[in-house]
């Protein structure tokens, strides 16, 4: 006698799967919505093709992925959809809706490696010099940017910093990174000076604006104009605003400073393992991409240098021809 599970439609299983992800898996409503879209798209495609989703095959699913590629969907989105749909079919097998995982063996499409962008040192200096040092907000912004770059911090790590986590005496901070992993980051003299000025001259002024507001949890290092903790979105907006003011045409965001920090360290000859520790990467493979960025930058510098040498070498004969003419 067939299992009661076989009488349910694929759509009914999808609703049950999404409820489980929300209740047990702790997925956010945004993630649940994306799962519904990704899986629902495949189920609808099966219907259009006259295919029964609960009896599909790997070949049918590969044809679906091919159609996504031909429609112009980017590789990263196809990879996500492959993983999401496959997760659903594992659930179907676990629930007894299918005798086996129907998509077992379908490999994820390879995602193209894209090198992270970095800020040229001259543009970085322009960004760091953009905040107005005559205002508390300007001093705060300069200190934030210096610490983002000088410590290689993620934006979430920056805004969650409390005053007690930073030591100006030795230029260090205790960071709570991804997965609640704790690490020590070090930052140089520019960040130390900027932080010292902010703490002495700007933070007390911002702190005084708290008034009757509900006290913050902890003792935030960086405060907004109301004396509360700055949010990641606020910092993103501030960086873009200062980048525009500095005349930087590139799209500047907080993670760009982290990319620049890692690449500039490797450009200067830092050991990969040290950079890995400073960034808080659990695997050296994650940090390895910055070596490719560094090599690409060095190649550009070398090409520009050789071009200049070639121009100088040709300049002599040009001058001689000019005089003889």
Structure in words:
The chain has helices spanning 10-23, 29-48, 58-70, 75-94, 121-129, 136-151, 155-159, 189-207, 232-245, 254-267, 272-279, 284-324; strands spanning 166-167, 172-176, 182-186. By secondary structure, it is mainly α. The chain is built from twelve helices and three strands, in the order αααααααβββααααα. A three-stranded antiparallel beta sheet has the order 1-2-3. 59% of the residues lie in helices and 4% in strands. Helix 1 (10-23) packs antiparallel against helix 2 (29-48), helix 2 (29-48) packs across helix 4 (75-94) and helix 6 packs antiparallel against helix 8. It folds into two domains: 4-94, DNA polymerase, domain 1 (Orthogonal Bundle), CATH 1.10.150; 121-299, hpI Integrase, Chain A.
Task: Draw up the topology in text.
Layout: H1 10-23, H2 29-48, H3 58-70, H4 75-94, H5 121-129, H6 136-151, H7 155-159, E1 166-167, E2 172-176, E3 182-186, H8 189-207, H9 232-245, H10 254-267, H11 272-279, H12 284-324
Antiparallel strand pairs: 1-2, 2-3
Number of DSSP strand runs: 3
Major β-sheet strand ordering: 1-2-3
Mean pLDDT: 82
Please state roughly what percent of the residues sit in beta strands, choosing from under 5%, 5-15%, 15-25%, 25-35%, 35-45% or over 45%: under 5%
